Amino acid sequence: MAIPSLYRRYRPRRFAELKGQDHVVRGLRDAVRSGREGQAYLFSGPRGTGKTSSARILAKVLNCQNPIDGEPCCECESCLAVEQGTSYDVHELDAASNNGVDAMRDLIERASLGTPGRHKVYILDEVHMLSRAAEAALLKTLEEPPDHVVFVLATTDPQKVSETIRSRTQHLRFHLLPADTLADHVRWIVDDAGLQVSEHAIGVALTQGGGSARDTLSALELIIASGDDDDPGAVSLDEFV
Predict the structure, then answer these.
(1) Are the C-beta atoms of residues 195 and 3 closer than 8 Å to each other?
(2) Do 175 and 21 form a contact (C-beta atoms < 8 A)?
(3) Whether pTM exceeds 0.85
(4) What confidence tens digit (pLDDT) does each residue in 199-221 have?
(5) What is the CATH number of domain 6-173?
């Protein structure tokens, strides 16, 4: 079986593992600790900055059987089901490919049903791609959501999300990672994975990644796999692709 890419292999499992988004981590953990989490969030920012990872972590901790200081335990049945994509409580929808009103109406109908856990969490990625009819249908539910439902809307282009929907959500903005933060993170991953990677390759990957953790790690894999690393001891990353 193929080994996951570095980005998937080192995807954050807890809020504390998110890099460069301290304001987001602080806000979400405080809300969970106080029991005042919102029912509708809008996560916006460039790709590869942790929006989907944060949504999944939030979904985990909201249904975690043994939460610890606003963090999921990542060991209980509920947490593991979310990580494996088999949870009955957490549903993800790619709005770019499911942007019609029928898909949204189906989601809304299912949202009204009960759930095994405490919360049913819907993660809608690239929500700015929804059609106007689908957006209108979603808005009605955001105005009066079922008590057990939490919506997390993610987008790389918040200005294309209607002002009405933005006003119904708690908007958390994700930023490109600072160069030093991302460099330290990449070096830690390289060391933890037991890879021989030159500083030159890391520097090139950081430049190509442009502050996106996902793009930086993808660039690093391609650089080493192509043999462009100037370190003669560098290993191939073919097994990670």
Answers:
(1) no
(2) yes
(3) yes
(4) 999 999 999 999 999 999 999 99
(5) 3.40.50.300
